[in-house]
Design a protein that fits this description.
Four copies of one chain form a homotetramer. With 327 residues, chain A is mainly alpha-helical. The first copy, chain A, has helices spanning 2-15, 23-46, 49-54, 56-80, 90-98, 101-118, 123-129, 142-153, 155-180, 191-202, 215-265, 273-283, 287-305, 322-326, and strands at residues 309-310, 317-318. Chain A contains 14 helices and two strands. Chains in contact: A-B, A-C, A-D, B-C, B-D, C-D. Chains B and C meet through helix 9, helix 10, helix 11, strand 1 and helix 14 of B and helix 2, helix 7, helix 8, helix 10 and helix 11 of C.
């Protein structure tokens, strides 16, 4: 029975624990990433009819292998997750894991294939659902998680933008419908039809399949474009400044941790490369970023040294000379 | 007569007071939001001729109900607003409310329908005016108000951009008119006609219905595009950084209020979840944001504790040791 | 002779001195702004052939009046500018003014019209040169000057972007020329011709008059678009963050001046609305912005008051209690 | 033999040392920049068939001269680089240089031409490789290096964006393929073909050669466009804020160096224009930027003077009066 627990713990470490790093766990990660990417490639290639017909057997074989691997992965994760918190009931831990984002994505990646046994859906649509396996990649990429976190944090701003954009699309479509309806009764036959023009224009895609042709329509179109063109580009701006903030905050966090360690242990930390490396990996910065931070810290420290007193929150010296105060 | 005042106060609380939250006021808000959205949907669907002809009766009924509800809402608001400031004359308070932005939007939402009794305007145009009811939604969305505030605050920058954009459009249109006039006498017959090309190009919409065809025209077009392409995207950038600033300032404001409360009441606030919740709602942050702020504060506080003295404006310890000074 | 100097001074104040504000100087400014805008409108309308032929007389009359006014303005400015610095030689001051940006723009606005007497250029091209009068508006709009200053300050970044964009256009054009040359020998007959496609694509204008049609060309085109799409939008981002910075710095400057005045004069400044108004106009902020700053200052001040000591550079209290130190 | 070392040192200074500035080294730099630009011009012009056939001799001559010059440059750099560090073995220094970025670019600029002797590749493709000489320009432009550094530093963010963009392109292409496949079996015959539409739409290029035509396809297309339009513009935003940061950091570094020099040497530095000029060139700021920094420093310094104590890291006075503490 002790073997059972040892195996479960070993499975848990390899599949669940991000901080556990062995040769095997790295291999498993790379194998799963490769399999996911290959699955997406297969879905794309299967859509090319001649290719699919010729190699139908291999495509199906690959899909069956993939489904088996992903199902096995899900079951092993489900079984081993209890090692996470042994103080609670096994099924409580499992149920909590099943409801987590990662587990739902894992389930979505295999469910459509099994659904096929019960309900017979269009094969083509079913194949597309396999693309959901792409989402499994989120687990392996920190930068992707960061982007999602920014999207979540700035969702207030996004909400406002989507709202404003919707208003602008409705207003623009209604205006152009009134003006162009008589000249182009086909393309602008109703507001919903005019909305296609509004979306294509306000996002600056501008296919040119529908354009205003009356002078009045062109004037209104120009006005709408000038006023609205910024709104569609807003989310990118918000995301960009959000990402920049996120990265800045991470750097500041590292600085703070560095400073705390420096004050507790003195300057020796600069010689203790292993400690630095551990800290770097814990915080998740690149070697280059760590280097920048240390260079900056050392310069400021040096600078503060011949000033006397150091301010702990910015690492800079304060010019109130010690002797001034003690007299 | 006391009943009269009680009813008026009750109407006031439900319709005007944002801080008053009862089950009824929430219901009223959701009902009005739904009605506004449904009105916009009706306007869009009515423009589809076959659909409108078939269900004309129901569309008209819905419009009449809407108009009644919005008129009632306006009158009740007008009547009850006097409760806002009972020290001033009733009509002075009402007149002030009538001139406020929210009241003007409310009036614009119902006026076109009543206008129809006196002046007989084109039904289609009249229907479009109903879209103004969309603006009533501003009252219910904080993020939308924030966006409008940013637009208002950065209007200096927008003014400059619109100005520069106008200059660029005029210059681009004139240049391309000179160069392309002979090759395409129809599309570039005059500067106003060439402006359509200029707007479509500088905003990067690029329908492709009018493009330069002479080598000289293509060279000038390429030059204009490269130089001007940034200007049209400027408003988005300004808005994005403005929004980011606005959100940052809100967070800082919360932090300051938290710090003040912490200093007045000690650390107990961390156990007083109700106080925190009240504060959170007052400032209007999400639970997640509040969580981030508290985590950050606690870490800094902990850090300052073994330093001795805390700087109240950044919550960080100052390394001037107490004993240093007392000696 | 004293009358001569008085008149010259009076002309100087009205035309040159931005801080001098009389009813007349305001009228002159608005008259000149209107005239400039009307001139641009005339140039645009003249390009519409039927309109020009019908009203030729009035167009020419308006042009002659405009030229007279602008020439008079230039001469009066030239004559009166000596009042700016009476310690130096009159002609030295004038020569300095003639070489200034504003004077060159003023000259460019009238020169083409006079050039016509000597050299007979194409009337249509000559008319376009009148658009240079638009630049005279820069004098009257602060926000426009700000934008130009940002462009000048960030010119290092712009230089890098234009450079990168040029490289990308050359590379993209060469690549697509190699790949698409055989399939579309007309549209991609040489690299210069392929550059039209490259510019239209990398700026995301995308007219669609020239597109890759071979699978290889589409793949290369997609790759180029994804990699290059950001570069063209860079200038807008740089400008936007530059403008945001510029506006922030202005606000900080006002805060600093406010703080200095507060420390020299005490809190009475809050009651001295005239002083505030003067300061506001001197710094060039809007009333709303000033309001924000004062509100913020007062809150911080109030907060610092029950803390004891105030830090002059951020207006916040420092928690080192006085009694702590005096013991 | 001493002459040999003197010559080698002289070659080293002119070709390698950026801080060495003589008339000759400036001439060499400008000559090489001109030659690189002329080479690119030649490649572009050679692609115009009639032009190339007429002047074939001159084009070939120019290419041969260029190849000679660039080869000579490479050999001289290779030979003289040992002067950089005379404490190490000559070949170790040379090998280190050969592996550096600049040397690899230099090699890429000449290698394709020599390759032609051994392998006979298509002349047209070979010519395009000459465009790699453009990269040699990086050595001469600081702003370009800065942009590359920003791209490298923010590569985490770029990675996330490319990843998200790939996911969106695959998802969008699959969706539109399902919906439009029947209506347009040619343009949307498979997912890879639909990806052309997805790229063109998500980057907002929008040629219009392929557009959805079914109502369902238009609805899906509109949804994809609205959601995805921001992602393609993200890299620009990240680059822009990265560049702004980079420029800010450079300014702050200058300020810090200025402050250190001021504290070591007193205020005399303001009179010592030569020192300032040297510092300015060392840091690489424009004269205008230096001016701004000094103005700001002087104002803050003046302000601090009547406050008593100065904080060295922000140059502002601290209001804790000296007498308060000494009592």
């Amino acid at each position: 029975m002790s073997v059972f627990f040892t195996v479960r713990r070993w499975v848990y470490l390899n599949l669940h624990d991000d901080n556990y790093r062995s040769f095997l766990s790295t291999c498993i990660n790379y194998f799963l990433i490769t399999l996911i990417v290959a699955n997406v490639g297969a879905v794309i290639l299967e859509s090319v009819q001649p290719l699919y017909k010729e190699h139908q057997f291999w495509f199906n074989l690959f899909e069956n292998i993939s489904i088996t691997v992903f199902t096995l992965e899900y079951l092993l994760r489900f079984w081993s997750v209890v090692e996470k918190d042994r103080s609670r009931s096994e099924w409580a831990v499992r149920w909590q894991w099943v409801r987590s984002g990662g587990a739902i994505i894992d389930l979505l990646a295999i469910l459509p294939a099994f659904l096929n046994f019960f309900v017979h859906v269009d094969l083509r649509v079913l194949r597309i659902f396999r693309l959901l396996r792409l989402l499994k990649l989120t687990r392996y990429f920190v930068s992707l998680q960061m982007l999602l976190r920014v999207i979540q944090r700035e969702r207030g701003a996004f909400q406002a933008v989507v709202f404003i954009l919707s208003i602008m699309i409705v207003m623009a479509a209604s205006g152009i419908y009134i003006v162009e309806n008589k000249a182009q009764p086909e393309a602008f036959s109703s507001i919903p039809k005019a909305m296609w023009w509004a979306v294509v224009t306000l996002t600056t895609v501008g296919y040119g399949d529908v354009t205003p042709i009356t002078p009045m329509g062109k004037f209104l179109g120009a006005l709408i474009t000038i006023l609205g063109v910024g709104i569609a580009a807003l989310p990118a701006g918000i995301l960009a400044s959000g990402l920049a903030n996120e990265l800045n905050q991470r750097n500041q966090r590292l600085e703070l941790e560095f400073l705390e360690m420096l004050q507790q242990q003195g300057l020796d930390i600069f010689n203790d490369q292993d400690e630095l490396e551990k800290l770097r990996q814990r915080v998740g910065l690149t070697k280059e970023q760590m280097h920048d931070v240390i260079i900056q810290l050392m310069r400021e420290r040096q600078y503060a040294d011949h000033q006397g007193i150091t301010c702990p929150h910015c690492g800079k010296g304060i010019s109130i000379q010690k002797d001034d105060r003690d007299e």
